[in-house]
Amino acid sequence: xxxxxxxxxxxxxxxxxxxxxxxxxxxxxxxxxxxxxxxxxxxxxxxxxxxxxxxxxxxxxxxxxxxxxxxxxxxxxxxxxxxxxxxxxxxxxxxxxxxxxxxxxxxxxxxxxxxxxxxxxxxxxxxxxxxxxxxxxxxxxxxxxxxxxxxxxxxxxxxxxxxxxxxxxxxxxxxxxxxxxxxxxxxxxxxxxxxxxxxxxxxxxxxxxxxxxxxxxxxxxxxxxxxxxxxxxxxxxxxxxxxxxxxxxxxxxxxxxxxxxxxxxxxxxxxxxxxxxxxxxxxxxxxxxxxxxxxxxxxxxxxxxxxxxxxxxxxxxxxxxxxxxxxxxxxxxxxxxxxxxxxxxxxxxxxxxxxxxxxxxxxxxxxxxxxxxxxxxxxxxxxxxxxxxxxxxxxxxxxxxxxxxxxxxxxxxxxxxxxxxxxxxxxxxxxxxxxxxxxxxxxxxxxxxxxxxxxxxxxxxxxxxxxxxxxxxxxxxxxxxxxxxxxxxxxxxxxxxxxxxxxxxxxxxxxxxxxxxxxxxxxxxxxxxxxxxxxxxxxxxxxxxxxxxxxxxxxxxxxxxxxxxxxxxxxxxxxxxxxxxxxxxxxxxxxxxxxxxxxxxxxxxxxxxxxxxxxxxxxxxxxxxxxxxxxxxxxx
Length: 636
Hints:
- This protein is of the alpha+beta class.
- Among the domains are: about 150 residues, Immunoglobulin-like; about 190 residues, no CATH class; about 70 residues.
- The strands form three sheets. Strands 1, 3, 4, 5, 7, 8 and 10 form a seven-stranded mixed beta sheet that branches. It has a four-stranded antiparallel beta sheet with strand order 2-11-6-9. Strands 12-13-14 form a three-stranded antiparallel beta sheet, with no helix packed on it.
- β12 and β13 form a beta hairpin.
- α3 packs antiparallel against α4 and α6 packs antiparallel against α8.
- The longest helix is centred in the C-terminal third of the chain and has 132 residues.
């Protein structure tokens, strides 16, 4: 191949370098009289990160080659501890005579310093930001504006130094004064309508609270006011009108208002949806979230206000309120439908706002992307008002239905009362006729009764005499009955200790648990009470039937303790009779017979009989001749 001449090669390399430089060169905005507004995006902006924050403007000018092209749609301060320098370039086709400005958005930016070239070629420094008093701004406007002075046609470079503790999108806009005034008037008119609607909602719901005394209206008023305070803090309106001479409050406005939005939203949700009654588990979760959110807020407020920038924490309480609404609506509570729809719209607004902050919603119109959350707040307030109205409508409907049911019931009661009165009148007439008919018969019988009374008086005199004699005989019989009863008890006791009683007789002697415990208590402490722990002999009544409590060590001993019936799993009266049967049969009765007589499982009877037979064998060895204790010797 033929070699190219040297000149041709040099020209090729030169054009290649120019193409490479043009490939990475910063785009220059061309300004003529037809350009009313332009937003700098993508490679129209270059930036330089100053980690130390100590670079001067002269240093920045010398480091022009160190600037980096912006890769996102809007540049931002990715490292909040660093200072960022931004550079834009414009080409003016004709002279500029102070009728244009450069404007920066995001009113939460702490410090913005602009270096604007003048017609002499030097730079003029202008400062603004949320850390300076509002009166220091070029215009009394929520954004940061810097005036482009008299400028000759040609290329001009503008520098902006930005420092903020928040993550902000640095949106740099060129505007003419006429377009800025037109835009600002429309913007403030929109703000007036927005905050006017908030005040109208607040006033309306406050009047409803005063009228019906339902707390949900008051909570809703607090929620709307919190939304208004947040929007004013985010838009810079609060700084302009509420605390223009106190820029330090800009660090707290968003955080405080967001806290009240979360708390008021959760409390309002609990009251509107009746969460405590309809979803107790969600009610507990809401209470825990309110507590944790309050702790986080107090920590941010008093110890580390920089944590206020993490607005994503509000997703937790708002998501919980949304989930609670969905759950209650699924369970059939109709007023929750507008509540769920309201929070769905609000979540859409949050998503659009987040995408705008990240630079992913640049394809949307500016009013929609920037004011999406405000629009959604308005829609949410309307839908929540519908939810409250729906709840009131349903309650009124239920009240009307109850009133109609009351009226119907009163009508039925009236008809029933009339029918009862008619029936009573009929019965009274019949009864009166019957009484009149019988009155004559009564008068005739009264004469007979008078004659009989005379005879009875005579008989009573005779009976009184006989009654005295009967009374004397009754006294004698009562003495005989007492003696007979005593003898019967002694005979029965003797038979119970022997082998003569059948089950009916034994049950008559020991019919219930109270009788058995009383018998055991008398048998156990027949020689007097002695505490098994401290040997004390004085006692008082215990908690258990016929138990005794030591007055010295407070040890309580039951009547069953240290007896054969201790830890028995069968009724005490049946345990008595089982012991009696084993004793009376000298241990020869079988467990099957015991089960039939006592109606207890054979295995239980067998286990219990083994224990008693063992005691019986031991007592036989030590029993004295002619011992009259009977079956009770097996108890202790």
